[in-house]
Design goal:
The chain is an all-alpha fold and about 300 residues long. About 75% of the residues lie in helices and about 0% in strands. It is globular.
Length: about 300
């Protein structure tokens, strides 16, 4: 097995872990308040990164610290909206709506760069909007609180992706990730002490869920992703990551008995399809008659 296949396989396991994270988070919220949970999760994750990469972390400079704090604030907002939303919506809906950040990234990028988005992105936005409506709107055509909070999280995560793209090329990525995670944990702890009554989990099940989330879905996922993407193409990674909401829906069905309606299933399918359309930048024949659909190639 060559390095690319190993990298793709590693990213599949990361995506599986992220899909499962929605279930584990929802379960943990039955025992802990939102920011209490986030504080514990991200503190453990930052501690594990510090132990593994302590030599690199000792070399953190002011530039890395500044960028990490900026991205950390954005990341904290995204996880806050997403986790608060999970209190009021299903894991499958949360995962599909969160995935909309993939569509929002090229839109925001085009706005900031003052360039018209590509036809595939425009069609992806239309399809995702239709999918979002089918997935979330009830008979009165209104969003519930959980879906609305999760939609806000998708917007924030889109800004996070853009921020990482801008700043990560200038600094050490592991140190940047460590600061991001630490900021989320620190801010979550402050909010928890101010507005909640923070406690320490007392059951083995809650600790098992939190430790899995901390090691495999947070610090471990960052490390594996940063390493694996050195050996596979961005196209491969994007294709694999679009499986996250699908895995979340599957885990939600088998572990929690959550069932999407036919309308919700179609909506979820449209969101995933729009993600693929925008991320792979598939050219639309009737809008770009001289272009061909690109072949997925390994561009390291």
């Amino acid at each position: 097995m060559n390095k690319q296949y190993k990298a793709d396989l590693a990213l599949i396991f990361v995506t599986l872990a992220w899909g499962l994270s929605f279930i584990l988070t929802k379960n943990s919220l039955n025992a802990l308040s939102t920011f209490n949970f986030l504080a514990i999760r991200f503190f453990i994750a930052s501690l594990s990164v510090a132990i593994i990469f302590y030599k690199r972390i000792l070399k953190i400079d002011k530039t890395t610290l500044k960028y990490g704090i900026i991205i950390g604030f954005i990341m904290f907002s995204g996880y806050a909206f997403q986790t608060l939303g999970l209190n009021y919506t299903t894991t499958a809906k949360s995962a599909f709506i969160s995935g909309l950040c993939v569509i929002l990234v090229p839109i925001f990028s085009a706005l900031f760069l003052k360039k018209a988005p590509k036809p595939a992105v425009i069609i992806g936005v239309i399809l995702s909007a239709i999918g979002l409506g089918l997935l979330t709107l009830d008979d009165s055509l209104s969003l519930n609180l959980g879906d609305l909070l999760t939609l806000l999280c998708a917007f924030v995560f889109a800004f996070q992706i853009l921020s990482i793209s801008k700043y990560s090329v200038k600094v050490d990525t592991v140190n940047l990730a460590f600061i991001q995670i630490s900021v989320v944990g620190f801010l979550s702890a402050i909010v928890s002490f101010l507005f909640e009554a923070p406690t320490i989990p007392t059951t083995q099940k809650v600790w098992t869920d939190i430790l899995f989330l901390s090691f495999f879905c947070t610090s471990g996922a960052f490390i594996v992703q940063n390493t694996a993407q050195k050996y596979t193409s961005a196209t491969h990674a994007a294709l694999i990551f679009t499986g996250e909401p699908v895995f979340a829906a599957i885990f939600g069905y088998f572990l929690c008995g959550e069932i999407l309606s036919i309308r919700g299933f179609i909506g979820g399918f449209l969101i995933v399809f729009s993600m693929l359309l925008a991320e792979l930048e598939i050219k639309i024949p009737f809008l770009s008659p001289k272009s061909k659909v690109p072949i997925m190639a390994n561009k390291k």
